[in-house]
Amino acid sequence: MLFYFSATGNTRQVALWIAERLGERAVDIETISGAYSYRLDKDERLGFAFPVYFGTVPSIVADFLGRLHVEVESGYYGYIITTSGPAPANAVGQMRHLMLKHGLTLNAAFSVKTIDTFLPFFTLPDGAERARLESETEVQAKFAAEQIADRTRTSLRKDIFERMTTRFESPIYYVARKTRAFCVSDACTGCGLCASHCPSHAIELSDETHKPKWVRAECMLCLRCLHHCPHEAIDYGRWTRGKSRYREAWGSVSKTET
Questions:
Q1: Phi, psi (deg, nearest 5) at residue 109
Q2: Which of 63, 120, 211, 215 sits at 20 to 30 Å (Cα–Cα) from 107?
Q3: Is domain 179-254 in CATH 3.40.50.2300, yes or no?
């Protein structure tokens, strides 16, 4: 079984590639509400795939682990797949700690580099560069799948640089995830997709304006609302204006009219 969380579609595609190679199920954790129990057969594999935010494990993944009860058999193989632009920093160590806290063992961790969709820092590639990066992602995902199929164990120890990277990025993330930075333009039609698909449940439609309003002080900063707004009406301050959005369908991209 492979559980995954995907904000903009990258991790979902990686999880599907890996699950297909292993002949196992890939389950979106957002489709699971409340407590969830799963019984591992002997020698079965148990995986988690998720993007890395500022060197940390997304809170939705940590919450899911708290609701997950796994009946384990001897010899099972636990692994994680982290997807990100840069290195995963100390997210591996965090996930190992979370899994141990809930009685699960982590045997291996694999990092698959994907197109970075964090628009405040990056601009989405297009054309040949985009095709090259997507091809590299597929190659890395399928290589990881081969390693998982062989039950390869990897080192889970991270060097001092990776630990320091997370320590440096965490305070930035604490500030950056404040929802006051989000804004909505007049292009908004009040369709409500941003509110209905926000994994943090941080958005509601205003009764007065029928436009989204952020009802929580902070969110995961996954930027799903920004990328999947059909009218590209949502921005994160001035840092995302005029930049291409990343759609759910693998390989599709929309260019903002400027």
A1: -135, 135
A2: 63
A3: no
Residues with Cβ within 8 Å of 60's Cβ and at least 6 positions away in sequence, in order, are 5, 29, 30, 199, 200, 220
Instruction: State pTM to two decimals.
Output: 0.90
pLDDT in tens, 122-136: 999 988 998 899 999
Residue 107 CA to residue 78 CA, distance in Å, equals 5
Q: What percent of the chain has pLDDT over 70?
A: 89
- How do the domains of the chain map onto residue ranges? 2-170, 179-254
Directed axis angle between helix 59-67 and helix 91-101, to 10°? 20
The 10s digit of each residue's pLDDT in 194-209 is: 999 999 999 999 999 9
**What residues contact 59, with CB distance under 8 A and at least 6 apart?**
200, 220
Look at the domain 2-170 and name its fold: Rossmann fold (3.40.50)
If one counts every other C-beta atom within 10 angstroms of the C-beta of residue 183, the result is 14
